[in-house]
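Quick illustration for those who missed Monday's session on complexes.
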Amino acid sequence: MSVVFALATPASRSALCVFRVSGEGCLDCLKDICNAPLVKPRVFYNRLLVSQGALVDSVGIVFFEGANSYTGEDSFEIYAHGGLAVMGSVVELLQEQGFNEAGPGEFTKRAFLNNKLSLSEAESVVDVINASNKRALEASTNSLVGGFSAEVFDFSEKIDVLRKHVEGSIDFSDEDYDFIKEGGVLDSLSCLCADFGGFISKCYVSGESDSKKMVMFVGPPNSGKSSLFNRLLGSDRALVSSSPGTTRDLIESEVFYNNLSFGVVDTAGLRKTTNIIEKSGITLALKKIKEADVVVGVFDDGNRARLSEVVSLVGDKLFVAVLNKSDLGDFEDVKGFDFLLSAKTGAGIVEFKDSLSKLLEEKGPGDQKYFARMRHVRLFDRCLNSLESSMLKLKKGEDLDLAAEDLRLARADLDEVVGVKTADSLLGDIFNDFCIGK
Ligand SMILES: Nc1nc2c(ncn2[C@@H]2O[C@H](COP(=O)(O)OP(=O)(O)OP(=O)(O)O)[C@@H](O)[C@H]2O)c(=O)[nH]1
Ligand SMILES: [Mg+2]
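Prediction with magnesium ion bound:
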């Protein structure tokens, strides 16, 4: 396979950036791009990176040989300073070596093709990266390194053993001894069906509901939506002013709180207006409500009467009503509102954030041990159907060939989960979801 490289960290200014390079022959360039040799694999060296005699950066660099790398082929990693000019120079240097930019998930795809990971483990790598809360992280880590593939391989072996027994007994079907019933094959198959059903119930199906949760701020103009949005982010991301109609566009960002990350969206204040730009901002806000997991209605004392109007716009979405600007007076009557707080002073913000994260967390996986894809669950269901169909045939004493064929089909479905047998198109679908550099 050709040598590929990628920036594995975001392409934005930060303390460090990490480049990965993988492919046969890639290590040959190290003597040219480093000011001194790298002696041992898997040792972190500090070297000067040079391109055609010119200094690029002082970097950390480590190389791996063949099977002992993530991809299963020769590879190395460069840890450089996280400046955009540094990143550009390292890209240029690697291109000068004739290396190609990697596609999405290329490193993990190579790890799969070189038998370093099963297909389901490779899929879990993305689930670990995308996990937005502790439970989702636990379940996807279990799928990656906590035995998901091992359990699937174990079921495959058991199915094989049973199929050999069924096929073996075909040759002796004329004899008096009923190998299937008296020899315990039927009992073993019945146990296997029960165990496999139990295994399926330990899998949490990751689907759309696992995409990052989104909290949206709506409400009348000037109620403090942008101030509350900024308060959650801990930075002045959205413009705040005393003139109503300040926010026109959707402003999106991300918050990490209580081991949970979620998206937050600030929107234009809802009011009748003739201003075309403001009007389109309001239309955007109303459309976006459909995508939100939680809608936070923000009001102040002057516009609290608009609560029911906003509630009716939100439809059946989870709605939280906030009465903001608590610092401006004593509010004894907070009927209809879930929170009284001040975006300005921070009063009541911790309670608000705690309950927001609870609302979002409740939507994650429950007690299930593993994260599984829809693709896996479809194959598991089909596998269980084949196992049950085989059991039924054996019980009825029907054609043993057909019962053995059901077991073969069941085994093939499990092969597809772990990637023993995989179509190229499926690999394309799976790895296109990855980020570059993984
Ligand atoms: N006293 C006080 N003032 C606040 C508070 N929150 C926001 N404000 C003020 O209220 C005004 C409007 O705040 P914004 O955050 O811009 O309100 P908004 O809802 O985003 O307004 P639009 O974008 O115009 O819809 C600004 O002058 C803020 O400083 C608060 O908790 N207390
Ligand atoms: Mg605003």
